[in-house]
Amino acid sequence: MTAFKYGFLITGLLLLLGCGMLLARQQYFHETASRAEGVVVDLYETYSDRRDAPSYKPVVRYLDSDGNEFEFTTTVATRPSAYDVGERVSVLYRPGQPDSATLDNGLEQGTGLAILAFFGIACSGIGGVLIWATAREKQRQTVLEQNGKRIQASYLRTDVLKASDADDEDAFRIVVQWRDPASKERILFLSPRLRNDPSHHLKNGQSITVLVDLNKLDNYQIDLLFLTQSP
Question: The domain 2-114: what is its CATH number?
Answer without folding.
Answer: 2.40.50
